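Lecture 7 notes: from sequence to structure.
We start with the chain below.
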Amino acid sequence: MSVSPEVSTTPSTSLASSGKSQRDNFTEPTKRLLAQRVGWLCSNPECTKPTVGPQKGGPGTMNIGVAAHITAASEGFARYDARLTPEERKAPG
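Predicted structure tokens for the same chain:
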């Protein structure tokens, strides 16, 4: 999956002290579904490298894939769409 940087255009009002995230992050099952849909390959047309493979020096696997939102996951970032609900921003699309 491709990585899309999100650049802040306004200062954020931090909820870090309350322990709550301002981002409408994907759940782990959604991340897995998205990775499976693209065959565990980077979605950047200039890349298309595998995003998962064997762990070097061990029996496990290594995942370098990053699930990226098409619209920003939090207010104040590029491509934020206030018309979407938190549930829609978290959905695989």
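Points to note: Residues 13 and 19 are 13 Å apart (CA to CA). The helical segments are 28-37, 86-90.
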